């Protein structure tokens, strides 16, 4: 792999969610944000490109909200 290909691969792994999702992303730890990004751009069905994943999309917003709900449930269960 050339240097430029490695740089492109590294850039692809950096989450670039639209700024309008900041209020949602602030509710998740960075590791889950990274996992959510990878999920959106690598899933088998309806895979998004990095560019598509960085736009406003109701599917992305719903996905992030589900991730927040799941994270909060796990946090609540672990605090009991």
TrEMBL record:
Taxonomic superkingdom: Eukaryota
Protein's name according to its UniProt entry: 8498_t:CDS:1
Organism whose genome encodes this protein: Ambispora leptoticha
